[in-house]
Amino acid sequence: MALFLKKKYKGYGDQANFSPSLEANLDEIKQSVGQSDDLVIRRFRLGKTTKLPAAVVYIDGMVDQSTVEHLLSESILFDEEFSNMQEALHLYFDSFGDTKVLYDRDALLTSLLSGHVISFVNGHVLAYSIDMIFWQTRQVDAPSSENVIRGPKEAFVEAFRVNTTLIRRRIKDPNLRFETYLIGTRSETTVVVTYIADIVNPKILKELHERIDQIHTDSIQTSGELEELIQDNAKTPFPNVFSSERPDTISSHVLEGKIAIIVDGNPFVLAVPATFIDFIHSVEDYTQRADVGSLLRILRLVCVFISLYVPALYVAITTYHQELIPFNLMVSLAAQNEGTPFPTVLEVLILEVLFEIIREASIRMPVQIGTALSIVGALVVGQAVVEAGIISSSVVIVVAVTAIASFVFPIYNISVPFRINRFIVLVFASLFGLYGIFLFSMLLLIHLSGLKSYGLPYLEGLTPFVRRDQRDTIIRMPKWMLNTRPRIVAKNNRTRQQTPAPKPEKNS
Amino acid sequence: MLTKNTFIVLLLLASVLLTGCWDQWELRDLSVVTGLAIDKGENDEFILTMQVINPSEIAAQEEGSGFTAAQNYETRASSIQEGFRKLTQQAPRRGYFSHIAALIISEEVASEGLSNFLDHFYRDHEIRSDFFLLIARGESASDILSLLPPIEELTSVNLKHSLLYSENSYTAVKGVTLDDLFEDLAARGIDPVMEGVSTSGDVATGKSIENRESVKPSAYLYVGHSGFFKADRFVGWLDEDEVKGYNYVMSENQDTPETLSCPDDGTFVLETQSIEPNISVHSGNSPKINIDIKIHSTLSEMNCEGIDVEKKESKQLMEGIMNDKVEALVNIAIQKSKEERVDIFGLGREVYRQKPRLWEELKSEWYTHLAEIPVHVNVNTEVVGSGDVNNTFNVRDYIDDD
User: With an 8 Å Cβ cutoff, is A236 touching chain B?
Assistant: First the structure.
């Protein structure tokens, strides 16, 4: 150990940039952070007899207070019979936390501001940074936006170290890699890139490295910001970087050969490359039986169409193609339409916008006022508007069905493009009828087929149609049939498992 | 300055967008016409009666004001389309003709020929061709459309449902849609038959809402008695037996009852499960036509004495009676067809299909040949069941025991 340390820190003394005077160093730090209130300086003496004047400097609230107390109180136990001062100090500080030697001011400030304890000893030109980081983090809690009935109830938290642990606990593979980046010249945000070395497609990994290296920004605050800096297509409402707050979801992506990106301070972890169908999949598909899971997936795909097309279809059919409506249905639609003042498309638009407002308000609203909102929303919008004869009740049904369908998606991100496109297709439908809807659908398909995420077509699996991947695309086959990983993502290592189909032994 | 590419894009956009639908109408701007009646007016004009629904009176959830479910508007014009458009002179909305349920034609108009006005119904994109056509029997078509039927609130929808359901459960009725009619009109060697509709009871009261207030309605619509045509001109009516005979050959009624006389006294009923008619043409020196009808049926009513249903002989007996009855009915209808010189069975079409060479010889004088060609009817009935019981519950057996 001593040998190792010697080798590691050899030659630092010459480059040291600090003054031998303790007070001078402390003053300099104080100046650097502008006499900041949360800077704590604690002086102590090292050794029983030598009583070397020393001090630790740290930012209040970022370090473990009790360890600092230990360090101070045990200073008299400092071994004075040393041959090498640097080695002895290093050994001593190492017993309280991972210690590094600092030899310039910039490194010192970075360490200090990221929560390390900095120690100076009078007459010694080196500074030591001791890792005693400890601050209040949120407990690992149940996911807030991606709930499942049967399945793990853990979600990522803000602290990246907890998040890496959550992944490591699920994949105990020595090939699991965590690469750490500091991004943002001012925020110095820790970004961890996670992948399994022998599954990941090296081309995709290289591409991601290049994109991260290109980032030159002062700060990254959310994973959404990072997403925008590393995504392929900016001119699309469709997310082409996957994100989830569920460790199990992210782990399964990593196991498929995708690359996860953890941004410190964010409970949402990114994954690339992302395909459209990933956003429709849920953990629930795998925790339930395969047949149930497949049905749920099909239901979700149906909901994609409902949330996109139902208002448009309603407008197109009731204003252009009345002959398509069964007679009795048309009579009741016509009766509801009787006496309402606005054109159908305007009714739908009004109610859709109203619903978007309610949805936005209910996210921001303090929990205590939530009930008030639901009363106003349900009673005023749902009932009064119809009773007042402003909007026909069938439109309320249409908008409600659409709204409910848009909440079905397991990943919230994917409902957003459909919300936007719903309005566009509505305009198409009101101008051109069913023809407009088909025109829009064609444009949408062209757009979607043109999207790529890290070289992977956005509609991978569906178009281009990959026959083998169909076992886990729209339907999910049982686990013992899911033998391969997705085609492009895990190019070099496709075999996932070889369990034979379970069946009772013949003789039993 | 437009570059070539933007010009192409603009052209594409224009051609893509200009082909969209341009006939936008809100539901509340439409007068939905469900029934049409065509009568003869003066100076070669048609009198068009259009039944326009009043949605809030029909819809289940809406509280109506107690008005009738539909109003009839009458226009006079020498062409159908003009009559349709004249509707807006009286009704505040645009007429909408996609949901027509029934078209009633007066005898007078029908006997002058359907081609005079049917073209528009087939040509116009808005009108679907799946509605039923009926001939007003002994009354003006307008009167029939004005009757207020007791259960179904709209006369036209009443007629449509009446036809739809009785078509499947009673041989005396066969609905004819515009499609069917055109099929028959366009083909050579077949003359169309169309269902008739008449009213019974006090028609004056039947037209007011009073008709729906009593248990026994003062007047109601009656569907039955097919009218037959020569080409597109109405000629006359078939009576009930003739209609039955006609429908045994021409329609695929699934379960119709046939009441048959017992050998001694009383009646029994066979309910058909399937009817498979087959017309075959035999050429040669003297061409002849065979009509074979295969009927599967079950016993559905038995009021005969002395027939033991469980016995094989009685089954054969019942089948024999049924064969004779149906053969007789079909023969009556064929006789009528020969007398009137109309080919309602489409025998000419069958000749054309099966023996085209023969048809070439006969087609110029077909109606004369039709009267002469022997038509042999052979019915083969199979009784496959006897309902839920075997022999009927017979009161006399118990009396004897006591």
Answer: no
B259 close contact with A: CB closer than 8 A: no
Write the pLDDT tens digit of every residue in A472-486.
889 999 988 888 888
Give span(s): CATH 3.30.300.210, chain B. 251-402
Q: How many domains in chain A?
A: 3
Q: What is the ipTM of this complex?
A: 0.83
Q: Using the beta-carbon criterion (under 8 Å), do B99 and A335 form an inter-chain contact? A: no
Task: Report yes or no on A151 lying in a domain.
Answer: no
B residues 49-108 near A, CB within 8 Å? 53, 55-56, 58-62, 96, 98-99, 101
B35-74, pLDDT tens digit by residue?
999 999 888 899 999 999 888 887 766 566 677 788 899 9
Quick check: is A418 in a domain? yes
Do A117 and A42 lie in one domain? The reply is yes
Q: Is A322 within 8 Å of B30 when comparing Cβ atoms? A: yes
Fold of B251-402: GMP Synthetase; Chain A, domain 3 (3.30.300)
**Mean pLDDT, rounded, for A427-452:** 92
Q: Which residue of A has its CA nearest to B55?
A: A335
Task: Give the sheet arrangement for strand A117-121, strand by strand.
Answer: A39-46, A52-59, A117-121, A127-130, A99-102
Strand order in the sheet with A259-263: A176-183, A189-196, A259-263, A269-272, A242-244
Cα dihedral angle (A273, A276, A278, A279), rounded to 10 degrees? 120
pLDDT under 50 in chain B at which residues? 402
* Closest-CA residue to A285 (of A276, A294, A277): A294
A387 in reach of chain B (CB within 8 A):
no
A346 and A263 share a domain? no
- Chain A residue closest to B125 (CA)? A323
Domain that holds residue A69: 2-130
A505 assigned to some structural domain: no
Do A301 and A202 reside in the same domain of the chain?
no
How high is the pLDDT of residue B401?
A: 54
The residue type of A416 is: V
